[in-house]
Amino acid sequence: MSNRSGSPTQRTWDRTRQSREARLAAASAYARGKLVAADNVTKLLEAVVRPGDRVCLEGDNQKQADFLAASLAAVDPKIVNDLHIVQSGVVLAEHLDLFEAGVAKRLDFSYSGPQGGAIARALKAGKIELGAVHTYLELFSRYFVDLTPHVALTVARCADRDGNLYMGPNTEDSPVVVEATAFKQGIVIAQVNELVDRVPRVDVPGDRVDFVIVAPEPFYIEPLFTRDPAQITETQILGAMLAIKGIYAPYGVKRLNHGIGFNTAAIELILPTFAERLGLKGKIATHFALNPHPTLIPAIESGWVEQIHSFGSEVGMDDYMRARPDVFFTGRDGSMGSNRMYCQSAGLYATDLFIGSTLQIDLAGNSSTFTKDRVAGFGGAPNMGSDPHGRRHASDPWLQAGREAAGDTKALPRGRKLVVQIVETFGDKLSPTFVEELDSLALARSLDLPLPPVMIYGDDVSHIITEEGIANLLLCRTPLEREQAIRGIAGYTDVGRARDKRMVEELRARKVIQRPEDLGIDPLDANRSLLAARSIKELMHWSGNLYDPPAKFRNW
């Protein structure tokens, strides 16, 4: 930059560095080197956090910097206020306390899970100014563009005195959050379970960490991906049979991602039984981008699964993963390494199929987990559940789906990702899954949101599975065909009862709709005897007792 005479204008080029040095100087009274006593943490935060700062409080969808969350919620709002919270998971009550207390004002997030109802109430009450509900990859990317945190509050299993952090299996979001903050002169504070002389593995180098706190209690981890086989229903088993015989087998899907839920848990548990009888071993479901679901243990032990890369870990799976390095990505110390950004990228570009559930689907196939009273967030579903137009490597399932979508054999060859929604026609409390309009549209109108919160857009969805059958939306050539294909599997919902029966039968003749009987599946065969494990205890036995289930799942 120069003035008209050509000489450089005066400008300060290191304001962020000066800000960092001022914050560190203010914090020095509460630290010995990098170590801060637990009872000084709130004062530390009042020293380093400035009003209006962007703060990433880790908040993943599993591990939580819960002590730091409580400490931040306890700051004096006259000193720290109007914070812009940028974090992937808003799942603790303390995360909402920040807004109730006036400490925080604006929120950009990805997933809320158990706090979905509370966030909806806070939005309606004007307590939260919403930036956006992001996908994981979208939020992580914005950390490096326009949502760079000034302060990152992270969490690890242990640290040494130099600040090197060991996350173990639950590395999750930490590396990307820390890197975005540290390399833009931000402050990084880590909550750890213990201080050690030497960490087993360096997940975050100490030169990126400013302060370390040994918390009074180990950090909280949510067993988010554990599903008890005892709760899987025959309807869910039928859906799993349809998925395997109607989609996995004809497309030859080997590389895939399963969303969270009992529907996908049922698929995992009938791979060694139903799919084995179909002669599909080695032909489908060999490579996963997936958290270590306990319900995959029988498929792993019986030789179905060759490799799994994970977004995060799962409570109780540490010893099992350590003993199966051929399947999981494990470090030199033996523990699995996870990375949500890497695995989200793998799920977006390196898999051929995503299958997951949702709360509502409209006539165009748009889906959402938002309802009038629940702002649940999306997590990674919009990344995995989308057709990435930037993909350039071919695979048979991808090319086959592309040919079906094109319809015209003269068209330029292009592939297509398989994006499957597997649902029951009625959800909890007999709420219909299929609706004329998503609740999220009404929510957007009531909150004056510029973008309705749709989880997966209908034009990305390739198939929908219900207990009535499969709708192959790739084969639909008009919006009317698409609508009738969806109505044709919507059961006795209002949407399903309004189907054009003649048109639905025409679509069935073209295999746009396939009923169980069209695939040679007798719904009476969909019973719990197909499950390779029917309880958590049986999953333990399959693992050779390496799987150590959380206490809440132990009922024996």
At a glance:
This protein has 556 residues and is of the alpha/beta class. 31% of the residues lie in helices and 16% in strands. The strands form five sheets. Strands 3, 5, 6, 7, 8, 9, 10 and 11 form an eight-stranded mixed sheet that branches. Strands 15-14-13-16-19-20-21-22 form an eight-stranded mixed sheet. The protein has a two-stranded antiparallel ribbon with strand order 1-2.
The DSSP helix count reads 19
| Whole-number mean pLDDT | 95
Got a strand count?
22
Shape: globular
Fraction in beta strands: 15-25%
Please state the CA-atom Rg, rounded to the nearest Å.
Answer: 25 Å
**In the CATH classification, which architecture of the largest domain applies?**
3-Layer(aba) Sandwich
| Structural classification | alpha/beta
For the termini, the CA-CA separation is 72 Å
Low-confidence stretches: none
What percent of the residues sit in helical stretches (DSSP H or I)? 25-40%
Question: CATH top level of the largest domain?
Answer: Alpha Beta
- List the domain count as a whole number: 3
- The CATH superfamily of the largest domain appears as Glutaconate Coenzyme A-transferase
GO molecular function: transferase activity
Protein name: Malonate decarboxylase, alpha subunit
Output the keywords.
556 residues; alpha/beta; Glutaconate Coenzyme A-transferase; 3 domains; eight-stranded mixed β-sheet
